Amino acid sequence: MKPKVFLSLMLLILSTFLYVPNTTAENEPYTQWGLPEGAKARLGKGGINDITCTQDGALLAVASTIGIWIYDVQTSEALALLTGHTGRINSIAFSPNGHTLASGSSDNTVRLWDVATRTEIGRLEGHTGGIYSVSFSPDGRTLVSRSEDNTLRLWDVGTQTQIHTLKGYTGLKGLTVNINNISFSPDGRTLASGSSDNTVRLWDVDTQTEIGTLEGHTAYVSSVSFSPDGKTLASGSHDRTVRLWDVATQTEIGTLAGHTGWIHSVSFSPDGQIIASGGDYVHARLWSHSEVRLWNVATQTEITMSMVGPGVTGISFSPDGQTLAYKTSQIFGGRVSERVDFWGVNAQKEYSTLLSWEVHTWDVLWIIEAQKRKKGYSWFRTMLEEHTAAFSARDPGINSVSFSPDGKTIVSGGAMVSGSGVRLWDIATQTQIGRLWAGGNSVSFSPDGKTIVSGSVSLWDVGTLTQIGTFGVGALNSVVFSPDGRTLACASGYNSVISVYDFSYYNHDHIVSLWDVETQTEIGRHWEHIGAVKSVSFSPDGRTLASAGSIDGTVRLWDVEAWTEIAVLRGHTGWVNSVSFRPDGKTIVSGSNDRTVRLWDVGRQAEISTLEGHTAAVNSVSFSPDGHILASGSDDNTVRLWDARVEIDTLEGHTAAVNSVSFSPDGRTLASGSDDGTVLLWELPQLTTETNNIAADVNMDGVVNIQDLVIVANAFEAAEPDLNGDGVVNILDLIIVAQNFK
Fold first, then answer.
1. Is residue 388 within 8 Å of 399, Cβ to Cβ?
2. Taking the domains of the chain in order of start, what are their residue ranges?
3. Phi and psi (nearest 5°) for 625?
4. Residue 566: C-alpha distances to residues 540, 570, 572 (Å)
């Protein structure tokens, strides 16, 4: 072999061994993107607040509860997660050329993002309230933002400076983003806005001045829309009329009357010949219906009227003008349920439906529908499968998480109506491996890992993901298997009040019940709690059941075999949301709306200690398998870890309330489920000598002395204060105190 050839071959071989693969964030799985300190993975992508896409349909952006996700529409691949906002992201918009993304948030800022580099390139500050919507002018040079501070602000996108504040609004505060109350003219030179002061205002974008106030409506103006040629403006109002305005002369040229209720949305067809309007329908017996009306612009007469579902909040024509889409909203059980329906304009026939979590804004609507027709109905669902909906500040997320007995799988549960449902996640691959179409305020594995119980109450076979039983009890707050898997304990009830003067009229569906798993029959029930029962937990030997009450603020202990009440533990000053046994069965922990975590001695039926630190309600508490660490999740968005009555760490990273915490069977990982629609997996810290040193100050007076020694000596053979975590107070705990004398 020639020397040069040999040398080249050796260099090639050597370079192969020296090659270092690219380990940048771009090559990491999305479960690793933007993790908070201490977390090792995130399951799920959060709830959906808003959706938008580039005009060419190449990229899709989703404003979620944890950040902004960027997707490739063709491949359905997640490309990036943009984080930085410190509040809810309410609205996002791509610039017309697709190079810039704008986002408006409840943190009072508008942020600009470079789409190519996926980095923040600007922060627009000035609003004194949360931003509800952002929108680019047709040329992309100007951005308008609408805020709860009752102003519209115009921003120069190039210089990233505010160029004007449009004031004068009296009713924008509290306006929902579902109502389209701002519209640019097609040439981008004029901005129209409707207000609760019953007027439509016109603004010159270049001079940033008000050029006209259109008066005539007698109630709140909910929607404005320019005709395609920009010469006519349509406005819909709660006065039940659609009014047409000549933009040049700023005069009313027509009133379209016929709606029986408030009008929420108006839209021109692409050729400008038809106006569609949607609103409520007022009728003594059809209160839950709404109406969509089509109007001939030239003759100013109604073409047709269709009765549709409740609450039309949005209406839009397809680009070819042949199809009409309308969005309806309904409050159901305290939650907002939405859907989008499509109608052929000529045939007046419904042909498809989008569920609420599938679309939130009109600029993405028709691109999504076109892709669905081309790729199949499941395309869009697949792309957003790991998102959960977010229609309220509180409800949409993960209410419950639980590890399988072998530690390989996590089941998470949330409300079906919000899109969360029950989902299964593979820990090793950090991917969703299954979904159960059931509600999941509470989810749990059976001790053998073969069955899942959901708060519906339904039993599911883990292997086949099929339902194998249902108890017909209705929605439950908590449901758990007994240690032998033969019995289910259920907690139910709502805190509804019929009379504020007589607390005996609280909803009486506040029960603790036991069910036989094999026969799926009820064994017994108790009504002793006042108000909803929030949580139940079996002792390790299965002989005792603990239940947490809401209104009465108590923890109650029950003898499972005799099915009688053993004790009532009082001390919390607010609703008790969660209760759990320590693995040795000697201690119970409870978390409450009073912001405290409390430890109780089961044998003495007395409170041992109160753990303070959370700044909001404590929703979930759980002991590690060895009983050394206690975890608590709270409405303050944090998870706190405690050892021997001392806080040892605060885990921050969720953007909403933490509803559930669960340890892996080996005790190395903690899972937390949150209203932000995600499950975070945390690496647990190692306990240190310093922790035990702090714990030695048993009476918390700031010094370890003879008083602490006396407390420990008097508690021999009890469960607390167990300083070394071996399950009992003994000589070893005395040694810890003695070693830390000061």
1. no
2. 178-358, 394-490, 688-742
3. -55, -30
4. 17, 13, 19
Task: Count CB-CB contacts under 10 A for residue 632.
Answer: 26
What backbone torsions phi and psi does residue 324 show, to the nearest 5 degrees?
-115, 135
pTM score, whole prediction: 0.80
> Which of 139, 124, 216 has the alpha carbon at shortest distance from 184?
139
Of the options 1.20.1250.20, 1.10.1330.10, 1.10.510.10, 3.40.50.720, the CATH number for the domain spanning 688-742: 1.10.1330.10
* Spatial separation of the C-alpha atoms in residues 102 and 133, rounded to whole Å: 10
Q: What is the amino acid identity at position 738?
A: A
Phi, psi dihedral angles at 436 (to 5 degrees): -110, 130
Specify which residues 650 forms β-bridges with: 640
Instruction: Name the nearest CA neighbour of 539 among 478, 483, 486.
Output: 483
Write a three-state SS string for 342-388.
EEECCCCCEEEEEEHHHCCCHHHHHHHHHHHHHHCCHHHHHHCCCCE
Distance (Å, whole) CA 194 – CA 515: 57
- Indicate if the pLDDT at residue 463 is higher than 90: yes
CA atoms within 13 A on the CB side of 579: 33
Q: How far is CA 3 from each of CA 7, 8, 13, 15, rounded to the nearest angstrom? A: 6, 9, 15, 18
User: Residue 21 is which amino acid?
Assistant: P
pLDDT in tens, 252-265: 999 999 898 889 88
DSSP letter for 503, please. Answer: G
Closest by CA to 195, choosing from 165, 233, 225, 221, is 221
E strands, 587-719, are 587-592, 596-601, 606-612, 618-623, 630-634, 638-643, 646-652, 658-663, 669-674, 679-683
Question: How many Cα atoms are found within 13 Å in the side-chain-facing hemisphere of 178?
Answer: 25
Average pLDDT value for residue range 418-427: 82
C-beta pairs of 460-469 under 8 Å, 24+ apart in sequence: 460/422, 460/436, 462/404, 462/409, 462/424, 465/424, 465/434, 465/435, 465/436, 467/436, 467/438, 469/517, 469/520
The helix/strand count (H/E) of the chain reads as: 6, 57
Of the chain, the percentage scoring pLDDT greater than 90 comes to 49
Q: Tell me which of 3.30.70.660, 3.30.70.20, 2.130.10.10, 3.40.50.80 is the CATH number of domain 178-358.
A: 2.130.10.10
CA atoms within 13 A on the CB side of 346: 3
Q: What would the CATH number be for the domain defined by 394-490?
A: 2.120.10.30
Structure-token match 């021999």, residue found: 716
Q: Give the phi and the psi of residue 289 in degrees, each rounded to 5.
A: -105, 160
> Taking a C-beta distance cutoff of 8 angstroms, is the pair 700, 686 a contact?
no
Across 168-182, 396-410, 514-528, least confident range: 168-182
Residues 16-72: pLDDT tens digits? 333 333 333 456 899 999 999 999 999 999 888 888 888 888 898 989 989 999 999
Q: Which positions ≥6 away from 14 have C-beta within 8 Å?
A: none
pLDDT level of residue 380 (50, 70, 90 thresholds): low
Which residues make beta-bridge pairs with 33? none
* Distance (Å) of CA 357 to CA 72, 170, 233, 353: 19, 32, 31, 12
Per-residue pLDDT tens digits for 153-182: 899 999 999 988 876 544 444 443 333 478
Encode pLDDT of 112-155 as tens digits.
999 999 999 999 999 999 998 899 999 999 999 988 887 788 99
d(CA 385, CA 390): 14
